[in-house]
Design brief:
The complex is a heterodimer. Helices cover about 0% and strands about 55% of the residues of chain A. Chain A contains no helices and 11 strands. In chain A, about 35% of the residues are buried. Chain B is mainly beta. Helix content of chain B is about 0%, strand content about 50%. Chain B is globular, with a radius of gyration of 13 Å. Classes of the chains: A mainly beta, B mainly beta. At the A-B interface, strand 4, strand 5, strand 9 and strand 10 of A face strand 4, strand 5, strand 9 and strand 10 of B.
């Protein structure tokens, strides 16, 4: 049962334009969401996160939007740069009294920025 | 702080052999996680520790897998009697207990079972 879904395996965007990566989830208990970026032969690198009590979080060129009613989140990158070419993973966590626990990941979207 | 480190980076072994991987977390982090990633998939949770206590194990972690974190610092993941299906990238992550959920990953150990 894939609880976190990234339905677009790949995306190509012109340099300077906006990249929009999408993620859907099914588990209504998820209350914290994260985006990771992964280059080949490296571990995932944390990019940005959002709590379920918010609908938007922004950090520089990266903005994450959360639509709880639709169980959907998206990552916007603007402007897109060649160094943004990587695989992007959406991840989610169920909060608890113990704090952070396991992350459930999507299957990833390969973003290619075209110069 | 040099981040999370993992050794070895690559391991090739023959089916039936035992292998052990090591993870050194970020020094001030008390939580340590192991994940496995196969081709075309996202990382899948295996187990995690808070200090030296192993708090959760995934059903993916068969009896052939064992993880330890004896002094609450580094951790080891051992796979006994390896099978070809164990071939994957094994990722370690660490975090500090608190109000944020970010986990910081190491570069991974790529295991190939021949």
């Amino acid at each position: 049962d894939q609880q976190v879904k990234q339905n677009s395996p790949s995306l190509s965007v012109q340099e300077g334009r906006i990249s929009i990566l999408n993620c859907d989830y099914t588990n209504s208990m998820f209350d914290y969401f994260l985006w990771y970026k992964k280059y080949p032969a490296e571990g995932p690198t944390f990019l940005i996160s959002i709590s379920s009590i918010k609908d938007k979080n922004e950090d520089g060129r990266f903005t994450v939007f959360l639509n709880k009613s639709a169980k959907h989140l998206s990552l916007h990158i603007v402007p897109s740069q060649p160094g943004d070419s990587a695989v992007y993973f959406c991840a989610a966590s169920v909060g608890s009294n113990f704090g952070n626990e396991k992350l459930t990941f999507g299957t990833g979207t390969r973003l290619t920025i075209i110069p | 702080d040099t981040g999370v480190s993992q050794n070895p980076r690559h391991k090739i072994t023959k089916r039936g052999q035992n292998v052990t991987f090591r993870c050194d977390p970020i020094s001030e982090h008390n939580r340590l996680y192991w994940y496995r990633q196969t081709l075309g998939q996202g990382p899948e949770f295996l187990t995690y520790f808070q200090n030296e206590a192993q708090l959760e194990k995934s059903r993916l972690l068969s009896d052939r897998f064992s993880a330890e974190r004896p002094k609450g610092s580094f951790s080891t993941l051992e796979i006994q009697r390896t099978e070809q299906g164990d071939s994957a990238m094994y990722l370690c992550a660490s975090s500090s207990q608190g109000i944020t959920y970010e986990q910081y990953f190491g570069p991974g150990t790529r295991l190939t079972v021949t």
